[in-house]
Amino acid sequence: MALQVQTHTIDGIDVLVIGGGIAATFAAIKAKQAGARRVVQVDKGTVGKTGNSCFAAGVIHVCFPEDDLDDRVLRLTRAQGYLAQQDLIRDHLQESHVILEELRRYGVHLVMNTDGSYRRMAGRGAYPIVQFFSTQLMDSLRKYAQSIGVEQINRLYLTDLLSRNGEVTGAVGFHQHSGDFHALRARATVLATGSTYYKSIHPGQRDCSGDGFAMAYRIGATLGGGEQNDQPANAMPARVDVGPGMNKWMGEGAYFLNSKGERFMVRYSPKLKERSGLPQIVAFFCIEARMGRAPIMMDARHFGPEQMGRLYQMLPLPQREFESVGVVQDGKFRKTVEFCPTGPTTRPGVVVDRDYASRTPRLFAAGEACPPSAVVTGLAAAATSGARAGTSAARCARDAGDPGDENGQVGELRERAFAPLARPEGLESEHVLLELQEAVIPYDVLLLREGRRMARALQRVETIRDQDLPMLGAYDLHYLRLCHEVKNLTLTAELTLKAAIERKETRNILREDYPFTDNVNWLKWIRVRQEGGEQKWWTEDIPIDTYPVAPKREAELAYLWKMARDQGVVSVKDGRIEWASE
Ligand SMILES: Cc1cc2nc3c(=O)[nH]c(=O)nc-3n(C[C@H](O)[C@H](O)[C@H](O)COP(=O)(O)OP(=O)(O)OC[C@H]3O[C@@H](n4cnc5c(N)ncnc54)[C@H](O)[C@@H]3O)c2cc1C
Q: 582 partner at 20 to 30 Å CA-CA among 121, 363, 508, 539?
């Protein structure tokens, strides 16, 4: 395709925020409120209409002043398998209530009691949740950011960060309508580009293609944490394109049944049952599948008018979608719904400190662009981390002076960005994506792990990297974006698999060949960065003795495997899992 495109340079940006989700929008708002004069927020779609945030299912996990803060830190730390940066988790919990108040001030409609207090209701997890009215949240935030002078640029797909002498000095990318190339020079940059589910059945995540991880990796930022997550995957309707809502359906009392009609979550997790955390739900889905007891069905046929009324209020779109396929008729669930885990969510995120500063000067990260150890999954943590990152970036912009120019990088990056357009006959990105999905999405690769299976998946990913990516071709700007996305997803998969193979234990994700949680050798974070064109891997000890919550320094059968063993599903032989069916 012969493109007549121009290169535009935008100078004088104090804080550049990359992303259009809740983390990015909070970062932009807070940078502006902290005194940054020029704050530019860039999204590859439209701010507030992309990524996970705008699809969120009406639920916010907030720590209220009357809650037991220590207990909540303990629970989130455990949910992270003790790999949490506990100081960041505590900051987040303490700030989450402030953020809730701000959401309300910015015009977000939250569910309130008649006396003006927040209505807290049961959801997944031990603490009650706050609810909001679905898509209205991100619309309010976008408009509020605009009202205080945040400049928003939509449809600009950022391909790379700019750097000079080891400092980040902005970013470059192409506009998806005009094709024009943009170089944005900024004193400080916040990366809030979200996570990834490898474009699987999870709604709202096709924009989340690991771009931020790859951009940061290419300029030598330190990444970590891709192999572990408080949310290894989500669980979604398998055959109906209905996404958000599991928390709410489970909160209202829906159950999961295996192919024998058994309510298996009651057996594995008698206390919280279907309201257990996602690591448990995903693990037991996998175990049931491995035992030949899939498909898993959600049953909500017992819901009465009161429950249905609340669902129609909080989740109008999913409910209407259920109606359109006959699952819901005359205001009642009439059929069960098949569920399965989504693609794995893996976050080899930018390693950050308490200010959400990365180890690369002038680069900050927020939300799911950070590793799970720093930012737990969910709107509240994305927002609190965004707020801190924005404030820190404004401070950096004030103190750090102007970035110099980048020594001709823009031309080189432009050439690289447009390269697939010169190969319209090349490989189509969707075919490469399918290959990648086939390598990493099957449940027995990254959700039910085993060293040899992961090594085989890595080999397939490396073949894609070496043989397919150089041949990618694009007919137009739409396909150009898809080429970059699949390239970034391939890197994300490679980094994740390498780290997952390296972590020789089960923490909150099942590993058959290492079923023990090893708190002697594996209270460690795995790190990677690109140095001189090579991947440099290392581990860092978690400063667990300086944190309030610490597990016993011993190796013991992981709690997920114990729950399965207690049900007679598995046993341990020669340090490996043996399945009862074998
Ligand atoms: C279906 C669904 C339901 C959920 N329900 C809930 C819920 O009820 N409650 C809850 O607490 N959490 C929920 N979550 C999780 C929650 O939505 C996420 O944790 C949170 O939104 C993450 O926010 P984020 O800003 O980090 O990322 P995202 O919202 O994913 O934003 C990432 C942004 O980066 C942009 N971007 C990426 N790459 C580029 C690039 N190259 N150039 C420019 N822009 C780029 C994307 O367009 C997007 O705007 C849900 C998630 C999903 C998918």
A: 508
Confidence of residue 5 (pLDDT cuts 50, 70, 90): confident
Determine the Cα–Cα distance for residues 117 and 226; give it in Å rounded to an integer. Answer: 39
Structure-token pair, residue 220: 């030598």
Residues within a 6 A CB radius of ligand 1 = 18-24, 42-45, 50-53, 55-61, 157-158, 192-194, 202-205, 207-208, 211-212, 243-244, 247, 367-368, 377-380, 382
Residue whose Cα lies nearest atom 27 of ligand 1: it is 194
* CATH class for the domain made up of 235-332: alpha beta
Cα gap 175→481, rounded to integer Å: 10
Q: Which two tokens stand for residue 140?
A: 């309010």
Domain ranges of the chain: 235-332
CA dihedral 173, 392, 23, 498 (to 10 degrees): 70
Tens of pLDDT, residues 386-416 = 999 999 999 999 998 887 777 689 999 999 9
Helix axes 211-218, 477-502, angle to 10 degrees: 80
The pTM assigned to this predicted structure is 0.95
| Residue 422 Cα to ligand 1 middle (Å) | 32
